[in-house]
Amino acid sequence: MIQKRGTGVKGYTRDEIRRRLLRYHNIDGSEKLTGIEGVRKIMGRLGSIQYDPLNVVGRNADLVLQARVNDYNYENLYILLYKEHSLTDGFDKEMCIYNTEDFGRFSKVREAHAKAVINTLTYRGQLDALKILDEVKAFVAEHGQTGTKDISIGETRESSWGHRKLSSAALDYLYNKGELCVTDKKGTQKYFDLTERVIPSACMGTGDISQDEFLDWYIERRIRSVGFLWDKNGGAWQGHFLSDRDVRKMALERLVKQKRVFPFQLEGVSEICYACKEFLDLQTDEEQKDCARFIAPLDNIMWDRTLLEQLFDFSYRWEVYTPAAKRKYGYYVIPVLYNSRFVARFEPEPVGKTGCFRIKSWWWEPDVCPDERMHRVIREEMLRFSRYLQAECAEENMDIIR
Questions:
Q1: Which residues contact 7 (CB under 8 A, 6 or more apart)?
Q2: Which DSSP string do the residues of 175-224 spell out, in sequence order?
Q3: Model confidence over 144-176: pLDDT tens digits?
């Protein structure tokens, strides 16, 4: 740690912050988090992980959790979401999974998102969906868990964009508003029920706090989801309320004054960074054994790609929506962490087609000179990743990193 003279703000080297970040997320494997209880603990710390339906080697949320929790299985997340309902689907940064205990505090986010949905319905010429909300709610109340295929109220139209049925648009609006909750998912198909049947009453309150109290909570929470952030627009500040830098600045001043977050200077970065106390208190001096992890494209530590590049000297772009001819690497490319460095990235074959974890392409970072020790640790991670996938690890994977 270094002290910045005359500023009253402590300074940290990039190596110190990298180590704290990986320990905070348990990506370094320092905590023996295992199975469903490990998921509970890491979700209690991070509060939110991003959901994305693309499934090549698991969905984004599964990839986030497997990097932090040993013996993780996608059923762990399913149980917490749709059996216990201790986690819930909802909009945070974007579509995310967060702790159900936070549901009440997200009421302001849901209000803002519901207004955005009305704008979308206006654009698509489907505002009549708002006229059948009571009818759709009555159907769900009578029939219980309901998917879009189970209900057909209002017009049906051929469309390649948006919902074909008004009842589907109404379900989506009621979900965004918080009157319905997702109670199951089969593939990408959502099933809904009345929120009061799903969310415990103890988690429904605290939505009546003042705007400043809400913003302080929401900004502190977003910092905790990553561990630390700077006050600079980017992916980590996406979502309603948080993209306004003036709003953030005032909230951060209040949070620093209340000692809920702490400013610090990151080596080589002019912007002031902010962290929760738990992050800065982490001890990383002891020798850590070698560790490799495959990181989700939308992992919390990847949310701000510019900050990621400043911290790790690693530039990453998710190219799934980039035309194939313009991609630098591949469709669904996964970064590889070795100790506290990003050393490579790879494109996997879709496991669902073969039942086998097979690497299509592998790219070492330009400044990396892999030795036998690095090869061994990465091969061990390949086997660990295969166990998470419940798939065989293709023999050629071991050779592709040579």
A1: 265
A2: HHHTSEEEEEEETTEEEEEEHHHHS-GGGS--TTS-HHHHHHHHHHHHHH
A3: 999 999 999 987 665 545 667 899 999 999 999
